[in-house]
Write a structure and sequence with these properties.
Layout (H helix, E strand, L loop, with lengths): L14 H31 L3 H11 L4 H13 L19 E5 L2 E5 L5 E3 L4 E9 L3 E8 L3 E6 L1 E3 L6 E2 L4 E5 L3 E8 L2 E3 L7
Antiparallel strand pairs: 1-2, 2-10, 3-9, 4-5, 4-8, 5-6, 6-10, 7-9, 10-11
């Protein structure tokens, strides 16, 4: 029989290749099952796993600003525009400051326009006990700032620049509180 260079006789497949493939698949499945069981046993023996999980998921604020930084860095590649200017040129103006609850009460002019102390994302708009109508901004540095007694002019999840208008005070009191990693911190570090 003459063999053509275009036609080659097929050799029968070896059963060893099939056996090796099946052995590899079974090994991967068993390793996955073993790792899953180890993780489940580890979580079950952890006495505080459920409470720690609930504490982290339900009581810790999600750092939207971290996601914004990553998004800007890798997807938008934004650079600061040299023509960008702050909305207000003035600093925070108040006539008196007193400690109040977890933050400070500032005495300001009636219907005072409240500006953002730093860039961030609006994560809460609503009523808070003892602060009244409140806007919470999660700043790019990870600090949550509570602006209390304010009629909001922003929306949830708005990204606001430093100096942007947050809202207008309802009367002559502006309440500010600063929270980092779920704990209130001294306002004096932020109001200098």
């Amino acid at each position: 029989m003459v063999e053509s260079k275009f036609y080659k006789k097929k050799q029968p497949q070896s059963n060893n290749n099939l056996k090796n493939y099946i052995r590899t698949v079974i090994t991967k499945i068993l390793l996955t099952i073993i790792l899953t069981l180890i993780l489940l046993i580890g979580f079950k023996t952890s006495l505080d796993f459920k409470s720690n999980f609930n504490k982290y998921v339900y009581n810790t604020s999600l750092p939207f600003t971290d996601f914004k930084e990553l998004y800007d860095k890798y997807f938008l590649g934004t650079k600061e525009d040299e023509n960008t200017k702050e909305v207000f040129n003035e600093e925070l103006v108040y006539s008196d400051i007193n400690m109040y609850e977890d933050g400070a009460r500032l005495t300001v002019k009636s219907n005072y326009l409240v500006k953002a102390l730093d860039s961030g994302i609006v994560v809460f708009i609503g009523d808070k006990d003892k602060y009244g109508k409140t806007v919470i901004v999660q700043q790019m540095n990870g600090t949550d700032v509570f602006y209390g007694n304010v009629n909001s002019s922003v929306n949830m999840y708005d990204y606001i620049e430093k100096g942007s208008l947050i809202g207008e005070t309802i009367d002559t009191n502006l309440y500010l509180a600063f929270q980092k990693e779920g704990k209130f911190v001294d306002y004096k570090e932020y109001l200098k």
